[in-house]
């Protein structure tokens, strides 16, 4: 059993709509700013180029429940969950970790973990047209994009939920270098 009160350090949580740049922002934090990624678990099929244990732990409907979850959700008909072990491992490493969650998961984290541990970033897209363009550019097929954007979870996460307004730092992800600069500034503000 892992006790949540024994966790300390800084956990940055990134949320936002599909294609808002969550994975891109997370990679910037891990590759440039010394963060460790919390790898989460999912039953969704691997996208081209994704690797098991790096992008996600890819699970089947059967193996998904072999893990101990701090929380898990259904998103567009697949399970996604973050394990106690993964979180503890990432924070132990250098006490600066980053996780990508849907907004329901963010609310659970705010409920279960000490507030001083958490920084929440909500990424905003300039427009729906840009969102679709970026999902195409990532290699998602038209039918997949349509299904994903029609899901109730994607619709919910298109805008910052009211319950997160007081806590989330909203970052518009338009021009990428500017987004990176905003991330650097936020990290400097929080960690200094
Ligand atoms: N609550 C929760 N959400 C997760 C977890 N892992 C990923 N997600 C979220 O699941 C959603 C779908 O992720 P993904 O299939 O990678 O699609 P994407 O948003 O298009 O990159 C995103 O909002 C992720 O933030 C998790 O462990 N818990
Ligand atoms: N500011 C940006 N300008 C142009 N392309 C971007 C920008 N941010 C992210 N992308 C690209 O958009 C696609 C979706 O980004 P991704 O990080 O996978 O989003 P998410 O994880 O939120 O679904 C990727 O191909 C990524 O390289």
From TrEMBL:
<dbReference type="InterPro" id="IPR008144">
    <property type="entry name" value="Guanylate_kin-like_dom"/>
</dbReference>
<keyword id="KW-0418">Kinase</keyword>
<keyword id="KW-0808">Transferase</keyword>
<comment type="similarity">
    <text>Belongs to the guanylate kinase family.</text>
</comment>
<dbReference type="InterPro" id="IPR027417">
    <property type="entry name" value="P-loop_NTPase"/>
</dbReference>
<comment type="function">
    <text>Essential for recycling GMP and indirectly, cGMP.</text>
</comment>
<feature type="domain" description="Guanylate kinase-like">
    <location>
        <begin position="9"/>
        <end position="188"/>
    </location>
</feature>
<dbReference type="InterPro" id="IPR008145">
    <property type="entry name" value="GK/Ca_channel_bsu"/>
</dbReference>
<dbReference type="GO" id="GO:0004385">
    <property type="term" value="F:GMP kinase activity"/>
</dbReference>
<protein>
    <submittedName>
        <fullName>AAA family ATPase</fullName>
    </submittedName>
</protein>
<dbReference type="Pfam" id="PF00625">
    <property type="entry name" value="Guanylate_kin"/>
</dbReference>
<dbReference type="GO" id="GO:0005829">
    <property type="term" value="C:cytosol"/>
</dbReference>
């Amino acid at each position: 059993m892992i006790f949540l009160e024994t966790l300390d350090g800084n956990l940055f949580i990134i949320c936002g709509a599909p294609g808002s740049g969550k994975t891109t922002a997370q990679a910037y934090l891990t590759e440039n700013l010394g963060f460790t990624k919390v790898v989460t678990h999912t039953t969704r099929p691997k996208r081209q180029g994704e690797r098991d244990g790096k992008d996600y732990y890819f699970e089947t409907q059967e193996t998904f429940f072999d893990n101990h979850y701090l929380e898990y959700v259904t998103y567009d008909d697949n399970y996604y969950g973050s394990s106690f072990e993964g979180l503890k491992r990432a924070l132990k490493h250098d006490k600066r970790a980053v996780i990508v969650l849907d907004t329901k998961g963010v609310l659970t984290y705010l409920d279960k973990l000490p507030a001083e541990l958490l920084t929440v970033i909500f990424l905003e897209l300039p427009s729906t047209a840009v969102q679709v363009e970026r999902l195409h550019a990532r290699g998602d097929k038209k039918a997949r994009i349509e299904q994903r954007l029609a899901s109730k979870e994607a619709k919910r996460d298109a805008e910052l939920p009211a319950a997160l307004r007081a806590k989330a730092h909203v970052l518009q992800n338009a021009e990428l270098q500017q987004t990176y600069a905003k991330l650097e500034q936020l990290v400097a503000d929080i960690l200094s």
